[in-house]
Amino acid sequence: MKQLVLRNSLYERIYRSLGVVCMVMVIVIIMTGDKDAWSFWIQIIAMLLVGLAFLSLNFGSLINRLTVEKGMLTIRWYTRPGQTAIKIHEIEEILADENSVRIILKSGRTVRLPTGMLEFDEKRAVRKFLKETTGF
Predict the structure, then answer these.
(1) Closest Cα partner for 28 from 16, 43, 17?
(2) Which of 33, 42, 78, 88 has the most C-beta neighbours closer than 10 Å?
(3) Does residue 90 surpass a pLDDT of 90?
(4) What mean pLDDT do residues 81-106 have?
């Protein structure tokens, strides 16, 4: 099994700061709110959950991961929910430019991985990983 894991540092900083803002809002709500009202507790719970989601980087979904195992390329990218599994023998070609890597399948379907927000070294690592593991 080969794996490439990348983290988008810009999105990571944005999400962490939004999480900190939500936690500060929880403290402000606690200090200024009416503890006898039911809406107070709903606000606290909602802001805690949103803050935890931001602090955990959306529960790990902002981590980019490419994995090759037993002839399958598994893609988990920050722009798409879940994972995409592609059989390596179904790949026709891989095209790369500044903003994205496009994997074109024999069926005509295109899987696009946006790389515009990644650093130059990370973009190169994605291209190198795909070239080594797929042969394209």
Answers:
(1) 43
(2) 78
(3) yes
(4) 93
Residues 37-56: pLDDT tens digits? 999 999 999 999 999 999 88
List of long-range contacts for 124-130, beta carbons under 8 Å, 24+ apart: 125/4, 125/6, 126/4, 126/6, 126/66, 126/96, 126/101, 127/96, 127/101, 129/2, 129/4, 129/66, 130/66, 130/94, 130/101, 130/103
Query: How far is the CA of 79 from the CAs of 26, 63, 76, 114, 116, in angstroms?
Result: 29, 10, 9, 8, 12
SS3 95: strand
Give the DSSP H or E segment for 112: strand 110-114
